[in-house]
Amino acid sequence: MIDWNGNGKIDPVDVGISIGVESSQEGDKKPTKRTGCLTSVLITLSILALILIWLL
């Protein structure tokens, strides 16, 4: 814990601020959605197959 208000002791205000800072830092770690090369190839092949079926 950090003495946020600088009074020389850890009181409930310091505990609350520390918990708030920790919880806001945890919220910053959002997973990103990644699409790989295989997904891109499968989508492209599917589109090409649909075009070929439509033309024939």
Question: Could you characterize what this model shows?
Answer:
- The chain is mainly α.
- 62% of the residues lie in helices and 0% in strands.
- It is built from two helices and no strands.
- It has helices at residues 12-27, 37-55.
- The longest helix has 19 residues, at 37-55.
- The protein starts with 11 loop residues before the first helix and ends with a helix.
Write the layout of secondary structure elements.
Blueprint: H1 12-27, H2 37-55
Tell me the strand percentage band. under 5%
Biggest sheet features: none
Global shape: rod-shaped
Oligomer: single chain
Q: Summarize model confidence as the mean pLDDT.
A: 82
Give the low-pLDDT segments. Answer: none
Can you give me a brief rundown of this structure?
The chain is mainly alpha-helical and 56 residues long. The protein has helices at residues 12-27, 37-55.
Which labels suit this protein?
56 residues; mainly alpha; 0% strand
